Amino acid sequence: MTGAPAMHALALAAVLLAIGLAGVLARRNLIFMLMSLEVMLNASGLAFVAAGARWGRADGQVMFVLILALAAAEVAVGLGLALLVYRRHRTLDVDALSEMRG
To answer: Helices 6-26 and 30-54 sit at what angle, rounded to 10 degrees?
Structure first.
């Protein structure tokens, strides 16, 4: 049994990256922006794994583990900041947070 061709995996990664980018640009809610960043990180991880599988190397899987660690740290810090912002301003709307300067 053979796996999916590398071009199919890379095309899926490109679609996921575009969906994540559209989510970051279109949504103004902090939680949805964090979720869109997660989608973008998973897309880059999929591209690394597909490229590593194409050349028969484990480098892509190692990079994917590093991307998962980065994503976990981003979620922890991002949700902590979202809680702090909500407690202070009672909103998670990014546009309403322009008073945070200074």
So the answer is: 160
Query: What is the value of pTM for the model shown?
Result: 0.84
CB of 49 closer than 8 Å to CB of 9: yes
- Among 7, 41, 47, which residue's Cα sits nearest to residue 23? 41
CA distance 38 to 51: 20
Half-sphere exposure in the Cβ direction for 6 (13 Å, CA) = 11
Count of C-beta atoms within a 10 Å radius of residue 39: 17
Q: Per-residue pLDDT tens for 22-54?
A: 999 998 888 999 999 999 999 999 999 999 988
Cβ contact 56:3 at 8 Å:
no
Cβ neighbours of residue 70 under 8 Å, at least 6 residues apart?
41
